[in-house]
Design a protein that fits this description.
The protein has 13 helices and 2 strands. It has one domain (2-308): A middle domain of Talin 1 (Up-down Bundle). A two-stranded antiparallel ribbon has the order 1-2. With 309 residues, the protein is mainly α.
Length: 309
């Protein structure tokens, strides 16, 4: 009965976490537009950060509650899920993803750089404050390059924001914090009851749960004929996950980096990152390439289940 209760708490907490993250992002987006911030800037900052907010919240809470090994599992698992599952499903659903812009100008080099930097930073089993500052410098450089030469919209084109937007901003932020606490406590309880390492749950259930916003956004964009948005969403989320979700929790306490992450799952994340760059070289991701990505995800999930067993 205790296991059923904890699983129920986990499911409800994940649902509240996703709902509150959506409200936070939507209200922040409306407030930003009303203040004259361009939609592009909002997209690469507020929305990209917002879709990574569940990962960040659960990672910070996990450090505070003494389960810091969840952080790297959360980041690596979410990054693999974003590429293999989110983009794989999107490519299969829309047959072909035609990219409207060349990802090799900025996105792919930064994505590759973030993946390699993460590997070399944690290969010694720890993450130092200096490495965290490097990660934060990386996201600043990425944002600075992405945001340069952006024009502010005219005053008459700005939508008005209401008190409800500010209320949802505060309420969403508060619920994100509370629900993340329940997610981590449920993970800890479930892993204890089933004698499963918390890292395994972070690589699977938490990674899939916190990647649901990316799945929803990508499939919705694909149905509207804007599948290239799905690729940008996954790329931006992965860069934010690596640079922000790994770095910020370290300031709340030391991070434990399990050996199986360094030996198996982090190399897999790098392979998936390189594969995405190769696939997008001709500015198209085909349905067959989508099936290949899903095959990698199937192997990844089977490896987690085997480890749990």
């Amino acid at each position: 009965m205790e296991l059923v209760i904890q699983i129920a708490i986990f499911v409800v907490a994940i649902a509240v976490l996703l709902w509150s993250s959506d409200r936070f992002v939507e209200s922040a987006e409306r407030i930003g537009l009303s203040l004259g911030i361009s939609p592009f800037i909002i997209g690469v900052t507020i929305v990209a950060f917002g879709t990574s907010l569940p990962e960040l919240a659960t990672s910070i809470v996990s450090v505070l509650e003494g389960a810091s090994q969840i952080v790297v599992g959360n980041v690596v698992g979410s990054n693999i899920t974003n590429i293999a599952l989110v983009l794989g499903l999107t490519a299969v659903v829309v047959r072909n993803i035609d990219l409207e812009y060349n990802l090799w100008h900025i996105d792919i080099p930064f994505l590759w750089g973030s993946a390699f930097l993460l590997y070399f930073a944690v290969m010694d089993g720890s993450l130092s404050f200096f490495e965290c500052f490097l990660f934060l410098c990386g996201i600043v450089i990425f944002l600075a390059y992405s945001l340069k030469d952006q024009e502010r919209p005219d005053k008459e084109d700005r939508p008005a924001s209401s008190w409800k937007d500010y209320l949802y901003l505060l309420l969403g932020g508060a619920l994100v914090s509370v629900s993340a606490t329940y997610v981590i406590s449920a993970i800890t309880a479930i892993s204890t009851l089933l004698a499963i390492a918390p890292t395994v749950i972070a690589l699977s259930a938490v990674a899939v749960g916190t990647s649901l916003p990316e799945v929803a956004v990508s499939l919705a964009a694909a149905r509207r004929g804007k599948a290239s948005i799905a690729v940008g969403n996954a790329l931006g989320s992965n860069i934010f996950n690596t640079f922000i979700v790994m770095a910020v929790p370290r300031f709340f306490g030391p991070l434990v980096i399990p050996d199986n992450i360094i030996d198996v799952y982090l190399p897999l994340m790098i392979v998936m990152t390189i594969l995405l760059g190769v696939m997008s070289n001709n500015r198209k991701i085909t349905r067959w390439e989508g099936y290949v990505l899903l095959l990698f995800y199937a192997w990844y999930f089977s490896a987690i289940i085997q480890e749990a067993g």
